Amino acid sequence: MEREEAEIVTENGDAEAKKGFSDGSICGFESLHRLLQSSLSPQLFQEVSRMLLGMNCGRPLETVSLPDPAKALSSTHDFDLQAFSFRADNESLRAPRIVRVGLIQNSISLPTTAPFLDQKRAIFQKLAPIIDAAGTSGVNILCLQEAWTMPFAFCTREKKWCEFAEPVDGESTQFIQDFALKYNMVIISPILERDVKHGETLWNTAVIIGNHGNILGKHRKNHIPRVGDFNESTYYMEGNTGHPVFETAFGKIAVNICYGRHHPLNWLAFGLNGAEIVFNPSATVGELSEPMWPIEARNAAIANSYFIGSINRVGTEIFPNPFTSGDGKPQHTDFGHFYGSSHFSAPDASCTPSLSRFKDGLMISDMDLNLCRQLKDKWGFRMTARYELYAEMLANYMKPDFEPQVVTDPLLHKIP
Ligand SMILES: NC(=O)NCCC(=O)O
User: Fold this and answer.
1) What is the extent of the structural domain holding 18?
2) Is 397 contained in some domain?
3) How far is the CA of 330 from the centre of ligand 1 (A)?
4) What stretches pass through the bilayer (predicted)?
5) Which of 2, 65, 362, 413 is deepest in the core (most CB within 10 A)?
6) Atom of ligand 1 nearest to the CA of 154
7) Would you say residue 409 lies in a domain?
8) Ligand 1 centroid, distance to 240 Cα (angstroms)
9) Domain boundary among 59, 80, 106
10) Ramachandran region, residue 22 (left: φ > 0; alpha: ψ -120 to 50; beta: rest)
């Protein structure tokens, strides 16, 4: 639904407006960027885009033309497809290191009441053409959304959803390995993991599949939310894999899973281990986090001199049994709307527009990884970081007898 229908929505008043927005659109538009593009004169839109998206090497981000088969897949299977290019300055001693990176966002396919195997296989079926579009576009590194094989059922606290968990070499990994091999593509596959060797425990895990279809490694979500309906701590614990950076054929990558994006030290640690691209596969809803979404990753990309790919699922998932989360809200059967809006952020503060707020999508971006070091040289954030100050501060803070360093105005409690 785009402009014309949005106007009808506005004219028909509240009830229609509610209907229009319930699809997850912004007043009938797929994204803020598209709303602005349709509403502003070309000149104003250019200025506003410059302010909102920043400049890459002094220029607006360029779009990239994708091969016809990828475009055909996007129209046949109705997913948003966008592509951009982040440049870096030419260097005398290093050739450009351009990699093509993709992010996939999607809704679930079947109602949450369908048999679990059918639900999982239907998501596989939905993702196949989107992964094909990435492969035929020459994507080198592709990342899927958090817990992509299942509905984000952790709001319910019901244990039956644990059945979706798989070992790292399970069915979903085998499904993804075929694509990795076929397209010479590194694929990050975030799943609910069952750790069979350690008492069948569960983890929220990203499996990293190398471009030869090999399992390169895994990373387990470091920070587990306890906010709103995000009752994930009922299912799994904080990860025990540290902050691994995976050196792949196409660059050094890491994964900061969803809620970890609110933790600056988590981003920092991936940077200290040398990440050039950090992926943030997520599942988050509008009411809770949408104002934070365009800011946090972009800020982390700047602070840590690396690229970030942010992914959020789309749609509203309705569960069979009502639940509450002790926050005073009446019982309900859905999490709210997962608002998609996947995008890339670059170390020079530029970023792409976002994918649709309600449709499946594939966001592709070329990125010259030389930009990471160029930004380190220019701004010197690593060099000026004063890590020793913070190491000492944190070591003190961790002690049971820690005293906050506060200087109290002696007059504070004396003068009325
Ligand atoms: N999946 C997840 O960790 N969501 C938590 C909510 C948020 O971080 O926006």
Assistant:
1) 1-59
2) no
3) 21
4) none
5) 362
6) 1
7) no
8) 19
9) 59
10) alpha
